[in-house]
Amino acid sequence: MAKNKEFVKFDNVDKSYDGKILVVKGLNLDIEEGEFVTMLGPSGSGKTTCLMMLAGFETPTHGEIYLDGKVISNIPPHKRGIGMVFQNYALFPHMTVYENLAFPLRVRKIPKDEADKKIDKALSMVSLHGFEARMPMQLSGGQQQRVAVARSLVFDPQVVLMDEPLGALDKNLRESMQYEIKHIHESIGVTVVYVTHDQTEALTMSNRIAVFNDGKVQQLSSPDELYEQPVNSFVAEFIGENNKFLGQVADISGDKCKVKLDNGIEILANPVAVKAKGEKTKISLRPERAIIDPKDKMDNNHKGKIEEIIYHGDHTRLRVDLLGNKDFILKVPNSTARLDLKKGNELNIGWNSIDCRALDPK
Amino acid sequence: MSTEQILSSDGLPLEVSLRKAERKNKLKALFLVGPLFLFLIITYVFPIGDMLFRSIDDRKITKMLPNTFTAIEKWDGKNLPEEPVYAALYEDLSYLKKTKTYGKIIARLNYEKGGFSSLIKKTVRKLGKFEDGNYKEQFINVHKRWGQPEYLVALKNAAPNWTYAKYLKGVDLKFDQNGDIVQQPEDRRIHKILWLRTLKVAFWVTIFCFVLAYPISYLLATLPMKYSNLLMICVLLPFWTSLLVRTSSWMVLLQQQGPINDLIVMLGLAANDNRPELMYNVIGTFVAMTQILLPFMVLPLYSVMKTISPSLMRAGKSLGGTPFVAFRKIYFPLTVPGIGAGSLLVFILAIGYYITPALVGGASGSLISNTIAYHMKSSLDWSFAAALGTMLLVGVLTIYWIYNKLVGIDNIKLG
């Protein structure tokens, strides 16, 4: 069966609350059927607003949202058939787990024996069998979370929206829930739109990630592409760790360009967002792409001085003064071949031009 | 389970050392609640105890006619009693005449049966002319009522130290000559009507308050801060105004030449010479009491609604419930504790409300509390007032008990 590439479609959507500031600006976003798409961005970037517009709790100021080819602006929330998991779970505190799950089925007038089967299935999906008679208050945070997920799926919705559902959980639980939600998604193939400001969460769970900033999607791509090939400096800095150099394009030819840094030294970089000589640029380099004492020949080789050593267990982070950037971060895996790391030591650092992306100077 | 005692490091049982460690805190806590406790005892427990006591206490007359009551005890209450009863009565009345305290028994005996006033007064006046012996005949000569058994039955009925006759009177019952409980004569059955009216007014005022307060509270809980604060002040402003001022402003508004009547006439709902009476009847009581008790419904409702996360309604809608279903199945059940608290508060306050019905209620709008006040201030039948007050208290406690059975008192939330 061919999957609908535009199962959910935001078509040039604007949203303003006060008539002065646009929270969402000309948003275009297509989500494929069965996809897990995460909206990632800092708070106030408009991602939750997008989710609320999709759920029907906010109306777009301009533009249309399509669900399975149909315009949904005039459909009230309860007729959209979209499941939703809220930030604080929003379980009905006066109903048992069973009644919480039965609510969406009961309002759809589904016969009791069929409803019971669905509830059974949904509860076993989140491994909460036997908790039917509990009240939400008697459950732990993680269990409440799972009930909320089960409730959003029990009526077989076309799309499930999740609004920072793991925000209130502690770190370990959050990680295990990430996998659990991911597995549920894989096993039932429902379309999920997930909102978070936690990049790890986004990277581990999603098929594609839409990075939001300033009411716009900055980049929409798969997690690995997003991390390794950010298209602009916001994305490069927002996702993962990033070393940056400011400079000016001195020469550009094919897939390489020469960038003259502010201190006069020239380095080779990958021209992603620059096209012509003389353009200002910000260079982004992931810490793990820079290698200490490289054995192979690399495009860039420079000396740096260790400013600070931070022990992280599985790896050690070095803050190095390199080419005038005093906050250059290096990650050294904690292997048996220990380097002699001391504050003030000089290191030979090398990296390839392809990993060193010349982006917009913003 | 192991019965071995756990010892703390200094060798004392753990329980003992825990108690020791907690003692100081307990004392501190006791010291803090002490003043309130005393205050409650003095201003609440003691007066209520006194009231309960007063409503059944009938010892005063027993002390004043000791010999009579001892003698009359043996009488069967049918034919006229024998000589010793009259002799004892003579002895008691002589003493009362000497100490000039006989006035006090007149009122008491008059409650028992009308006609004792003149009977006692005339007898006491002629007491000096009595001769020793054959008191029965002399008494009957002074006043023929001494020869009518019903007066002596009334006297006998007044004998016991304790009586619940006032409670019977509170529900329009009384003891007849034979000591059986019967209804009051029809023209004196007023209390049952009052009780029913009080319950009816309290019930409807609670309903009106609920209907008015629910949307207000909802707005208060959901509006943005700056508007909800303003609305809150609008709700509380009357609350901070003197009760008397508010009631009298209702009198201004509701009177026959008042603005509300003007409006009714202007709208053509009533003729100018046939203005409806909005005051000095039960309408005035309803209107003024609803307005005055409204904050007591708004505040608990508001505090409960404030805790209901808006995402619950959203969840209800996203799961497919229409706004109405989401409200009925999710929002409304969650506000029940507030409704319970508010209704109980308003109902209990309304059932004992005094000033407002006294000022705007007139005769047909006055409540049981007004009768209590009347007996406290005008008729000076304090024990009857106390009996009515006790009945009111028991009524309130019963309502509380029923509520607890139906809804559960831990389901109450005042904020």
Describe the structure.
The complex is a heterodimer of chains A (362) and B (415). Chain A has eight helices and 20 strands. With 362 residues, chain A is α+β, with helices and mostly antiparallel strands. Chain A folds into two domains: 226 residues, Rossmann fold (3-Layer(aba) Sandwich), CATH 3.40.50; 110 residues, no CATH class. In chain A, helix 2 packs across helix 3, helix 2 packs parallel to helix 4 and helix 3 packs across helix 4. Chain B folds into two domains: 103 residues, no CATH class; 221 residues, MetI-like fold (Orthogonal Bundle). In chain B, helix 3 packs antiparallel against helix 4 and helix 16 packs antiparallel against helix 19. Chain B has 415 residues and is mainly alpha-helical. Classes of the chains: A alpha+beta (362), B mainly alpha (415).
> What is the beta-strand fraction of chain A?
35-45%
* Count of individual beta strands of chain A: 20
Number of helices of chain A: 8
Q: What is the structural class of chain B?
A: mainly alpha
Structural class of chain A, by secondary structure, is alpha+beta
- Principal-axis shape of chain B equals flat
Q: What low-confidence regions of chain B span 5 or more consecutive residues with pLDDT below 50?
A: none
- CATH topology (level 3) name of the largest domain in chain A: Rossmann fold
C-alpha termini separation of chain B: 43 Å
Across the major sheet of chain A, the strand order is 6-7-8-3-9-10
CA-based gyration radius of chain B: 31 Å
